[in-house]
Structure formats: C-alpha cells, structure tokens
Design brief:
Number of helices: 2
Helix content: 40-55%
Radius of gyration: 19 Å
Number of strands: 5
Strand content: 5-15%
Length: 150
C-alpha cells in the first residue's frame, strides 16, 4: 500500500540521516582531538588520560562528584579565563579504576596537569582503594572550583 511505502521511505531517510549525523560527530571529535593534541605538542594521549568537554565534571563510576550534573568538573567556558572556543577550550582529564569503579578526575587545560592528577589518583587507589580515591578527587574538585584548574 502507498501508506506503508511512504512509512518505509520515511524510516529509511531517518536511518540515513541518523547514520550521517553519527559519522559527522565522529569526524568532528577526531578533528577536535587532533587540534587539542597539536596545541599540546603531542602525537597521542597517554594511557589514563582522555579528552573531555570543558564543562565536564568529576565522576566516580556513574555518580557525579560535588555536582548535580552527570559530567566531570571544570569551570564553565564563560567563567574560565581563555577558554572561549577552539583549541583553547580543550580539556583533558585522568581516568583510573579503583575497586571496580571508573573514577575520572577534574578537567584540566593541559595533558601534563591531567597526568599529575592521574598520579595522585593512582597513588590513592593503590593505598586506599576507591574510598581514598574519592577523597583525593573531592580535594581536586575543590581546588578546581577555587579557580586553580590548570
């Protein structure tokens, strides 16, 4: 019937548009990572460091830390100095596993700062497990909220 054909054609267009949007987002993310790495003078991200959105917030597993949102912590782009857009808006964060939980550190402007966070989180995870890591993450988040995110 004509109605069924019309619905099938509409569904095909929807799937096609959805797939094109997925590929466009993947290309944009790859280009964003490439720009961020180039601005840091690096070829790749070290293990345990990831590129994140500058408005991300700290997380422990699926639970946000000191935040009502479900992201990893950094000041908003409007309030952070020199973070208006482009490569300057790139933020990096550490990610460590403790007691089966993935714990993500606060967003940092440089890979070097995220690496320093990674060392702090890894030490806490080794010595005190997820509880100690949460405490260190809380301290890092408070430091970042006081304007010391680097």
């Amino acid at each position: 019937s004509a109605v069924a054909e019309s619905q099938a054609a509409r569904e095909q267009r929807r799937r096609s548009a959805q797939q094109a949007a997925y590929h466009a987002r993947a290309q944009e993310e790859a280009a964003r990572l490439e720009r961020a790495l180039r601005s840091q003078g690096r070829q790749s991200l070290p293990q345990g460091i990831e590129l994140c959105h500058p408005t991300a917030r700290g997380r422990v597993g699926n639970e946000p830390v000191a935040s009502p949102t479900k992201h990893c912590f950094a000041p908003s782009p409007r309030t952070s100095r020199g973070c208006a857009g482009g490569a300057a808006a790139a933020a990096f964060r550490s990610s460590v596993e403790a007691d089966g939980l993935e714990i993500k550190g606060p967003a940092r402007r440089t890979v070097t700062a995220a690496e320093a966070d990674l060392v702090r989180l890894q030490r806490a995870a080794q010595s005190s497990g997820s509880r100690g890591t949460r405490q260190v993450l809380g301290a890092m988040t408070q430091e970042a909220q006081k304007g010391r995110w680097t």
